[in-house]
Write a structure and sequence with these properties.
Layout (H helix, E strand, L loop, with lengths): L1 H27 L26 H18 L4 H19 L10 H23 L6 H32 L2 H5 L6
Helix pairs in contact: 1-2, 2-3, 3-4, 4-5
Length: about 180
């Protein structure tokens, strides 16, 4: 029971942190959290899925909460599709956590760009670009979304990863064992 409570608390903390970072960025830098090429600082928290499975529901719920803001911006579908992309990406990050090149989990770090590029790129092309789906448009929109994700993950995500590992925070804070 103790581990289950730790898991829920960790997931809730991650969700709250993701939402708070996203809302703060949206307030300070309008448009940077919900445009085609977004550089959502909170997406760097995807790295936490390398260290704890609690990050999977935490980041997904945080994304849902964050995308409530998108409803007011005329993007209600982003709450669904963006959150599904986050769920897929974080699940894959967790599953790929031990696949490393040297000491770097390259394949896991690519997952947010892949999932968001495909799902959110499709969402933008299908629902927001004149209603006519084209492969060129999908590849363009998906590429723009993926570009923003790559920027976040390879700059902020990499920095966060090496700080967590370098300071031993992965062993200190993320030692939740599930039965």
């Amino acid at each position: 029971m103790k581990n289950k409570n730790k898991f829920i608390a960790c997931a809730a903390l991650i969700a709250a942190l993701y939402a708070a970072l996203t809302y703060t960025q949206a307030f300070l830098l309008p448009g940077t959290t919900n445009m085609a090429v977004q550089f959502r600082v909170s997406e760097a928290l995807n790295v936490l899925a390398l260290f704890t499975p609690a990050a999977i529901p935490g980041l997904t719920i945080g994304c849902i909460i964050s995308n409530i803001y998108s409803i007011g911006s005329g993007l209600p579908l982003d709450m669904i599709f963006g959150s599904v992309a986050t769920l897929g990406a974080t699940l894959c990050i967790y599953l790929l956590r031990n696949a490393k090149i040297g000491k770097y989990p390259l394949f896991a770090m690519l997952m947010p760009a892949l999932w968001n590029g495909v799902i959110v790129g499709w969402e933008i092309e299908h629902f927001f670009i004149d209603g006519d789906f084209t492969w060129v448009g999908f590849l363009t929109q998906g590429g723009l979304v993926a570009l923003g994700e790559l920027g976040v993950m390879f700059v902020l995500g990499t920095l966060l990863y090496f700080v967590i590992v370098g300071r031993g925070l992965d062993k200190k804070f993320f030692s939740i064992k599930l039965r």
